[in-house]
Amino acid sequence: MPKDVIIACDFASETETLAFLAKFGSVRPFVKIGMELFYAAGPQIVAKLKEKGHQVFLDLKLHDIPTTVEKAMRVLAHLGADMVNVHAAGTVAMMEAALRGVSAGAGTRPKVIAVTQLTSTDEARMQKELLIAKSLPETVLHYAHNAQRAGLDGVVCSPLEAKTIHDALGSGFLTVTPGVRFAEGDADDQARVATPAKARELGSDYIVMGRPITMAPDPAEAYARAVSEFLGR
Ligand code: C5P
User: Fold this and answer.
1) Which residues of the chain have pLDDT under 70?
2) Could you tell me the distance, in angstroms and rounded to a whole number, from the CA of residue 97 to the centre of ligand 1?
3) More exposed terminus of the chain, fewer Cβ within 10 Å: N or C?
4) Nearest CA residue ID for atom 12, ligand 1
């Protein structure tokens, strides 16, 4: 199972993103393009980063009726991303449609993973605002089960949930985990956080780190630290 650190490139433009990645010299980290950058820079940003040698996780969190998601995924499949995602809350039928959509492209299809509950959501909000009466871990696990039933490759979840998910769904079911912070770092708006070392211990397959690397005085050094703590070397 590949283990890697994915940098969330939550920037407002292509120029800012390329300037940031230039700080890494010949190192080509796995990067995550989220809504902000994708909407600002346009779909060609994916091809541009792929050409430079980066692996790309396109984090657009699709959530719509199955037909719309299938058609949108058909378009995304041609962009060359290595990983794409949907909200598991869209139902099994929507996730199956997403998979049909990405499988329509030529060559290897990107991995498709599902967001269970956002790592910024805590149990109180989930219960009070979303009216989900179950516990957060139960809800996350149930959504992960749905994603597996739909044939998806894994889920986005908190590192704190990675072990439970692997125990229930197998080690081959990917856990991609944001909400990662260095021991002395600020949690920002993340509610369920762990350090890279803790994420490794809990069996996370990919950790996603944004601000602890993008806002660091020396991003390349912060990235190297994350890789070293996460991979244990
Ligand atoms: O800056 P930070 O490390 O908090 O960035 C985490 C990234 O992971 C952000 O781009 C955020 O959108 C994304 N993400 C998340 N929680 C999820 C899914 C994605 O934080 N459940």
Assistant:
1) 1
2) 24
3) C
4) 34
Read off the DSSP letter of residue 187: -
* CB-CB contact of 118 with 126 (8 Å): no
Mean model confidence pLDDT for the chain: 95
Which residues make beta-bridge pairs with 174?
Answer: 154
Contact 207, 196 (CB under 8 A): yes
Q: Whose CA is nearest to atom 13 of ligand 1?
A: 178
CB 34 near ligand 1, within 6 Å: yes
Active site residue 61: yes
Ligand 1, atom 3: closest residue by C-alpha? 210
**Residue 202 structural domain:** 4-231
Q: Retrieve residue 39's tokens.
A: 């909407």
Active-site option among 48, 50, 61, 71:
61
Instruction: Identify the CA nearest to 162 among candidates 133, 131, 198, 128.
Output: 198
CATH code at position 53: 3.20.20.70
Burial 4-16 (b: 16+ CB within 10 A, else e): bbbbbbbbeebee
With a 6 Å cutoff on the Cβ, whether 208 touches ligand 1 is yes
Give Cα separations from 174 to 156, 210, 232 (angstroms): 8, 20, 19
Over residues 101-133, the pLDDT tens digits come to 999 877 789 999 999 988 778 899 999 999 999
Tell me which amino acid residue 55 is. Answer: Q
Nearest CA to ligand 1 atom 2: 210
**Per-residue pLDDT tens over the stretch 214-233:** 999 999 999 999 999 999 87
- Note the pTM of the prediction, 2 decimals: 0.94
Atom of ligand 1 minimally distant from the CA of 158: 21
